[in-house]
Design brief:
Layout lengths: L2 H15 L4 E5 L15 H6 L7 E4 L4 E5 L4 H7 L6 E4 L5 H8 L5 E4 L6 H12 L4 E4 L4 H4 L13 E2 L2 H4 L3 H15 L3 E4 L2 H8 L1 E2 L11 E6 L4 E5 L6 H7 L3 E4 L4 H4 L7 E4 L6 H9 L3 E4 L4 H6 L3 H28 L7 H13 L6 E2 L4 E4 L23 E6 L1 E3 L2 E2 L2 E6 L5 H18 L2 E3 L4 H13 L10 E3 L8 E6 L18 E4 L2 E4 L3 E4 L2 E8 L8 E6 L17 H18 L5 H10 L6
Parallel strand pairs: 1-5, 3-4, 5-6, 8-13, 11-12, 13-14
Antiparallel strand pairs: 1-2, 2-3, 7-9, 8-10, 10-11, 15-18, 16-17, 17-20, 18-19, 21-28, 22-23, 24-27, 25-26, 27-28
Length: 599
């Protein structure tokens, strides 16, 4: 029996002991985080799936794993088809599947600290149709059979100084107090880790590549706050920074504290607050005020200091990436490099800046058919040699005190085929269309998404992921509330209008299963634009990322005059921005790669 088959069997035995007929295992934590600490990687431990989004359901005689289109291929490579059914979302929901597969009268367990109240209501209603019930558990049964489960991180908190943040924490808390007054609420419960980090101008190290700390916060109507965090994470500098207006408690005291708001109106975001929080507040006599986390939008609209910091981070990061692109263009065709060695080399170039604090996510270093997996994760066991005739895709980023970067480039190892050049150029055309978009205030990313897809649609092609996501300021590389994606994309629903100061990615792609993947990603800043003669305010994008786009993959005949002008102007800015950061052969290479492309 394989390791993961044995784990599945152990979980079924535990469910039997717990008198449960099934259990739901989401990939999240008590804060509804996208990226979670090692202690919360229950889905990966149970199934072997290494993606960043998914859910598993275990029943006595069958089990299913639910993933979206980004992981259609990857999940089948990493998870046993003998033990698991593969179910695509959003076409099929977990609740819908349970309604069809759970036995009549079944007791299906769930951890109330890992699901929202909305999900509990939806799943409970679906099961009720089969006279089955959804049962909250006090102890997660996965944890009961995971003998070497890591402990939560003990990393210390750090202070994000006002010079980088652009606003002090007292001003931010005062803004929340004003919001509470407008909502006629007495307190706000904050559970999203990046919201807490932004509000209090602190950072942490509890989630790989995302500088946040495991904590909860409750902000009072007078602008003071209670922070629930492990005491051993607090340094004297952090305590002094937080001051007397932020009362400190152990993280373990949070659940009990929720019972102390009898007769109070307490605001919380139903998208980020797990069911257990609302249940505890209600049990203590609080009136729940369900509102979107007010920090989300404030955090997404960067301050001038954060924008300036990101521009500086982009220059040093672009220089490191350009050095790497020169290196891989030279070393890749020799057949001596692998996906892991290439990723390590890129990280070394970034670390030579002396100010890299972390990567912003695990580098997607993917050659040949692995590039067709949009969120491929290379492991020592699956490390693949980079060989002639392949496309090498690298999606990477850095965490710096002044900014978070995210960029994707594709390099041909040897001469690309005509089909590769056609597909790459169509992806580039879509990238340019989005980068040059001008749009009215109030426009959402869903309304712009088709700009990036049209050149592919015209030949019957598409890609199964969003076109763009928000990016934080030395915070999460994936940040809401804005995104650029189809409304039907996972996490869809009402979309946030784009606003000046937001930073989002521009990353259309194309993936040919079993052969290669293409993605071109830069980060964009939403800016205000004046149009002479116009009668309405409009927005546009400023490209923040500077690194050459591979000219050997471009078919100039497919580009319009305007697209060719954009490409050459972009490469001229790349040379201007990062040329001074390079020397010797790297600088000469950059100059050659950024010379004008002609038909």
């Amino acid at each position: 029996m394989s390791t993961h088959a044995a784990r599945l069997a152990a979980l079924r035995d535990q469910l039997s002991r717990d008198r449960l007929d099934g259990f739901v295992v989401p990939l999240t934590d008590e804060h509804m985080s996208e990226y979670v600490g090692a202690y919360a990687q229950r889905l990966a431990w149970l199934t072997g799936f290494q993606g960043s989004a998914g859910t598993a359901v275990v029943l006595p005689a069958e089990a299913a794993i639910f993933t979206d289109g980004r992981y259609t291929i990857q999940v089948r490579q990493q998870v046993s088809a003998h033990d698991w059914q593969f179910v695509g979302v959003p076409e099929t929901t977990v609740s819908g599947w349970l309604a069809e597969h759970a036995g009549e009268g079944a007791r299906i367990g769930y951890d109330p600290w890992l699901h929202t109240a909305a999900w509990v209501a939806e799943a409970g209603a679906a099961l009720a149709a089969r006279r089955a019930t959804l049962v909250p558990v006090d102890t997660n049964p996965v944890d009961a059979v995971w003998p070497d489960r890591p402990a939560p991180s003990d990393a210390k908190l750090t202070v994000q100084d006002t010079a980088h943040a652009g606003r002090n924490a007292a001003d931010k808390r005062a803004e929340i107090a004003d919001w509470l007054a407008a909502e006629q609420a007495d307190a706000l419960v904050l559970t999203a880790l990046d919201s807490i980090a932004w509000l209090l101008n602190i950072r942490g190290g509890d989630v790989a590549h995302t500088p946040v700390a495991l904590a909860y916060a409750i902000v009072a109507a007078d602008g003071t706050a209670d922070l629930f965090v492990a005491s051993d994470k607090l340094t004297d500098a952090v305590r002094q920074h937080l001051g007397n207006a932020v009362r400190l408690h152990d993280r373990a005291a949070f659940a009990e504290a929720l019972g102390g708001y009898a007769g109070k109106r307490v605001a919380l975001d139903p998208a980020f607050s797990v069911a257990a929080i609302g249940q505890a507040l209600a049990a203590g006599g609080a009136e729940l005020v369900l509102r979107r986390d007010p920090v989300l939008l404030a955090k997404a609209c960067k301050t001038p200091a954060e924008i300036a910091g990101h521009r500086a981070a982009s220059v040093r990061d672009g220089a490191a990436l350009s050095r790497f692109l020169h290196w891989i263009a030279t070393e890749g065709p020799k057949g001596t490099q692998t996906e892991l060695s290439a990723a390590a080399k890129l990280e070394s170039f970034r670390r030579e800046s002396g100010v890299l604090l972390d990567l912003s996510f695990d580098t997607i270093s993917a050659t040949g058919p692995n590039g067709a997996l949009p969120h491929y994760h290379v492991t020592p066991e699956g490390d693949t040699r980079i060989e002639l005739g392949q496309l090498y895709l690298v999606d990477s980023g850095g965490q710096y005190a002044d900014g978070t970067t995210d960029v994707t480039r594709v390099v041909p190892i040897g001469a690309p085929t005509p089909e590769m050049r056609d597909r790459f150029t169509r992806v580039l055309k879509g990238h340019i269309a989005l980068a040059t978009a001008v749009f009215p205030q109030g426009t959402t990313g869903a309304q712009l998404d088709a700009f990036a897809r049209r050149p592919l649609w015209e030949v019957g092609l598409d890609f199964a992921h969003g076109t763009g996501h928000g990016v934080g300021a030395y915070l999460s590389v994936h940040e809401g509330p804005a995104r650029i994606a189809k409304p039907s994309y996972p996490g869809g629903g009402p979309q946030e209008p784009l606003r000046a100061g937001m930073i989002l990615s521009n990353e259309p792609g194309y993936y040919k299963a079993g052969e290669y993947g293409i993605r071109i990603e830069n980060l964009l800043l939403v800016v205000e634009r004046e149009i002479p003669g116009g009668d309405m305010p409009v927005l546009a994008f400023e490209t923040l990322t500077f690194s050459p786009i591979d000219r050997d993959l471009i078919d100039p005949a497919l580009l319009t005059d305007d697209e060719l002008s954009w490409l050459n102007a972009y490469h001229a800015r790349v040379t201007e921005k990062i040329g001074a950061e390079l020397g010797g052969e790297d600088k000469a290479w950059l100059s050659a790669r950024c010379s004008p492309v002609v038909r």
